[in-house]
C-alpha cells in the first residue's frame, strides 16, 4: 500500500468525493524530493509542472504568484512538486493524518506539516476529524477543501452554451445549458453573450467570481491552445477569434487561468478523468453534434498534432460522396453522421423550430414510436458511423472508442449497425476494441473543461493564491 504512493511513477485511480474513480494525472515518471531537495527514492527527477493529460500548454492569464520568494529556483520547483504530490495523494486515496501522509509519500513529517500548512493557506486542503489509524498518535485528518476553489468549464457551440462548475474533487456543483444562436450572432456579439452567461452562471451557483480559479472554454474547431486563439470553427463560421482575451476583457476575472481547447479533446478529458472507462490510457472519443470531431488520448496524453489541429475526423471522405458538408466540400463524414444529417433526414424535423438539440428530441420520439422512415435514416447513420469508427480503429488502435453527443443519445438505434460494421472492418481482433456510448451526453466538453482546470491546479497548486 505504502509503496504504491511513492514517486507517483504511474497513473493511479482513486475515488473522488462524488464516488467516481478519478485518475490522478501524472505519468511523467517523476519522483519527489523532500523540502531540502534530497531525493527520496531512486527514480529520475523531472522538473516539470506541465500538466500531462490535458497537455498543459496554455498562455498564462492572471496569476497567483509562486512559492518561495527568494528561494533558489530548484527548491521552489521541488516544493511545488511536493505540494502537487500531497494533493494527488489526498485526491486519490482520501483524507488522512499528517503521519499517514508522511508514511504514504515517503516525505518527513515536518515537510508534510509545512506543505499541508501551505495548501491550507491556498484553501486547497482543510482539517477534518481525528484519524485513529495505527500510525503514530491520533491526529487531525487532512482533506481536500471543497468549500472555496472552483473550476469552470464552458462549452460554446453553434446554437447553445453549457456551463459546468466543479469543486477540486470533480464533484459537479452547478450545471446549466442555454440556447443561444452563436453562429448567427458572430464572434463579437456571441462572446458577449457567452461572458454574460458565464457571469450569471457563477452568480446562480452561489459562488463568487474570485472562487473560479480556472475557466476552460470548449469550442468546436481548430484551436491554437498556446495562443488561446480559435483558428477556425467551420460550423460556427468563426475565424481567428482571440477567445481567451475577448472573454477576459469582458469578465475581468484576472485572477483566473483562462484557456480554450477543442470540444472533442475536452470530451476525451471528461471520459479519461471521470467516465465509465476512466484511466484508459488509449482512448478515442468521437463527439457528434453539428460537426463531428475526435479527441485522441494516447498513453494518457491528448494528441494534438503539429499545429494542435489533430482530430478533424469529420472531414474524412466517408459517406455518400454527393452530400455537401459545412466546410464546402462534398462527401465528408459529418455530412453523413452529423446532427444535421440526422435531423434533416427525418421528415418533419428538417425545418422544425428550435435548436438542433430540441429537434433531436423529436427524432428520438419518432424512433421510439417505431416510425419506419426515422429508423431507416438512423440505421444508415449507424452504418457510416461504424465504417468511420472502424477506419479510425485500424489507424489508431485504441482500447476503447467512446461515442458522445447525439451518437450517445441515439445509441439504441445506432449501436447495432456500428457494432456490425466494426466487427466486419476492424482488421485486428475486433473484440479487442470496445465501443461505448458516453454517459455525459452534450455535457462532456464542459465537464472535461472543468476537469482540465482541476488537473492544472493539482499539477501546480501554487497557481492558487493564498487567501
Ligand atoms: Zn467537411
UniProtKB/TrEMBL annotation:
InterPro entries listed in its UniProt record: ATPase_NBD (IPR043129), ROK (IPR000600), WH-like_DNA-bd_sf (IPR036388), WH_DNA-bd_sf (IPR036390)
Domain of life assignment: Bacteria
Biased segments, Basic and acidic residues type: 23-35
Ranges of biased composition (kind: Polar residues): 42-51
Region (Disordered): 1-73
Family: Belongs to the ROK (NagC/XylR) family.
Protein name: ROK family protein
Source organism (scientific name): Nakamurella alba
